[in-house]
Amino acid sequence: MTLIIILVVVALIVIACISIYNNLVKLRNNRENAFANIDVQLKQRHDLIPQLVATVKGYAQHEKELLERVTQARAAAMNATGINDKIQAENALSSALAGLKVSVEAYPELKANQNFLQLQEEISDIENKIAATRRYFNTATRELNNAVQTFPSNIFANMFGFHKEPMFEIPKEERATIEKAPEIKF
Questions:
Q1: Are 118 and 19 in contact (CB under 8 A)?
Q2: Residue 174 and residue 71: Cα distance in Å, rounded?
Q3: Given its phi and psi angles, is residue 168 left (phi above 0), alpha (psi -120 to 50 degrees) or beta?
Q4: To which H or E segment does residue 113 belong?
Q5: What is the pTM of this model?
Q6: How far apart are alpha carbons 135 and 128 in whole angstroms?
Q7: How many alpha carbons lie under 13 Å from residue 177 in its C-beta half-sphere?
Q8: Tens digits of per-residue pLDDT, 141-168?
Q9: How far apart are CA 171 and CA 16, in angstroms?
Q10: Closest Cα to residue 44, out of 68, 74, 88, 84?
Q11: How high does pLDDT run on average in the chain?
């Protein structure tokens, strides 16, 4: 009888361990899938940027440095490998695009150009989609991090090489600008 009880307890422990491990794998795969969704949106963004830059170049020759910064940031983002490198490169590209948007405000004739308006609308749409997929990615990352850091799954996470993963966050350099209240002028 004791042997049966011991076997049942061991079987339950093995089943619990397998369940915890499988849950960690599912959470890691969910995070990777969430980043793949971001990649889809980023690819679309990268495809549109050359069109936007070409349109803006026709109107803003003296803004060459800004346009080169956008182009370089796009190239860096496209060549980034690994989730963490892509996060850093995409943050740099977002910053460069924000600078381009500010620069465009100085060119009323550019804002009226149909090609530019269409591209700007498409990029705004993609930026909204990227924001949504980043939120989903961060949710998936939070769920994985919770599982990796809470008991008893943290024991198995350490044993099998699972660790806390970074969120897709705003770079520290941009945080001060974003946290500042916007100035509204009429």
A1: no
A2: 20
A3: beta
A4: none
A5: 0.62
A6: 11
A7: 8
A8: 999 999 999 999 999 899 999 999 988 8
A9: 39
A10: 74
A11: 80
